[in-house]
UniProtKB/TrEMBL annotation:
Keywords: ATP-binding, Lyase, NAD, NADP, Nucleotide-binding. Its cofactor is Mg(2+). This is ADP-dependent (S)-NAD(P)H-hydrate dehydratase. Belongs to the NnrD/CARKD family. It comes from Lactobacillus kimbladii. Homotetramer. The lineage of its organism: Bacteria, Bacillati, Bacillota, Bacilli, Lactobacillales. The gene is nnrD.
């Protein structure tokens, strides 16, 4: 097992060429935010925006539109019941699904639409409620997809892998990852106070930083958005995922130096400045 180190940030974060444009930094669609959990998808979208994705769209319950645009007018909106959602999905480099999605019949339908329409040149990031959906029905896991990144916390991983939290050892986690994703290129980001990252080729990484001030609702939604932003602009590599995990906690630690509680939105606010320090 290897520790993720600061070097990952200089390796992954690139200075932007002068002649680049938004089309060079990836299109991300975030799907989630039921009537009760709009904040989750707004936080994820804000994280994707502040981590540098070129174009960001959110498919969510219509009730979230005003809040989304009041907070981040840079982000585009589509009602998640709009028929054009399928066409939009096909144009994306990255789809992040799950923050605040909820678990009703409509959420199931959305997952099934993603599963049927995603392709080999797209990245799928599954978080929160989306993980509960695939734990109930494995047929919702697409077979044709470039990369799947799953970001469960330990309880979500218990539901998905059937491994009780106290039995979530590295070898059990690796076995479960391979069993759940037999043919897909998949990365497991198992979140805890020391998040572990696993690949199907038996690589294991541990995040040595982060702090309990980060134990605040929305912190994982923010991580999912950062992974979306990083994979959209820096590519579908393991390194992009490791860098996202590291910078999320690094921002959290900087905020915690003089704050008892770390708000997820403050992590996002810090990203542009932190990224400029490591870009080369
Ligand atoms: N502002 C918002 O709209 C928010 C919406 N959220 C959404 O709420 C829905 C439910 O997600 P939850 O994660 O709360 O629900 P879950 O019921 O899946 O898990 C939460 C519970 O799991 C247990 N647990 C054990 N180990 C844990 C670990 N390492 N990390 C976290 N919890 C651990 C804790 O008892 C915790 O109360 C998701 O769709 C999520 O996206 C949350 O993200 C919070 C913020
Ligand atoms: N004690 C802690 N130390 C370090 N990181 C933590 C701690 N508690 C939570 N985190 C981080 O916060 C995030 C929580 O994710 P999650 O539980 O999915 O939050 P939410 O669903 O509320 O957005 C994870 O990235 C986790 O690593
Ligand atoms: Mg979560």
């Amino acid at each position: 097992m290897a520790e993720i180190t600061e070097d990952i940030l200089t390796k992954v974060i690139k200075k932007r060429p002068s002649n680049s444009h938004k089309g060079n930094y990836g299109r991300v669609l975030l799907i989630g935010g039921s009537e009760n959990y709009g904040g989750a998808i707004i936080m994820a979208a804000e994280a994707a925006l502040n981590s540098g994705a070129g174009l960001i769209s959110v498919a969510t319950h219509a009730v979230n539109l005003d809040a989304l645009h009041a907070r981040n007018p840079e982000v585009m909106f589509i009602d998640w019941r709009d028929r054009n959602l399928v066409n939009l999905m096909k144009k994306m480099d990255v789809i992040v699904c799950g923050p605040g999605l909820g678990s009703g019949t409509f959420a199931l339908q959305l997952m099934s639409t993603i599963c049927q329409n995603i392709s080999q040149n797209q990245i799928l990031i599954l978080d929160a409620s989306a993980l509960d959906m695939i734990s109930q029905d494995a047929k919702l896991i697409p077979t044709q997809v470039g990369l799947v990144v799953i970001t469960p916390h330990q309880m979500e991983w218990q539901r998905l892998s059937q491994i009780r939290i106290s039995y979530q050892t590295d070898s059990a986690n690796l076995d479960a990852l391979k069993k759940i994703f037999p043919t897909q290129n998949a990365i497991l980001v198992l979140k805890s106070n020391h998040t572990h990252v696993y690949t199907k080729s038996n690589q294991i990484f541990v995040n040595p930083i982060g702090n309990p001030g980060m134990a605040t609702g929305g912190m994982g939604d923010t991580l999912a958005g950062i992974i979306g932003g990083f994979t959209a602009q820096f590519g579908d590599s393991l390194d992009s995922v490791l860098a996202a995990v590291f910078i999320h906690s690094l921002a959290g630690d900087k905020i915690a130096e003089n704050n008892y509680v770390v708000r997820p939105t403050e992590i996002s606010a810090m990203l542009p400045q932190l990224m400029s320090q490591y870009a080369n």
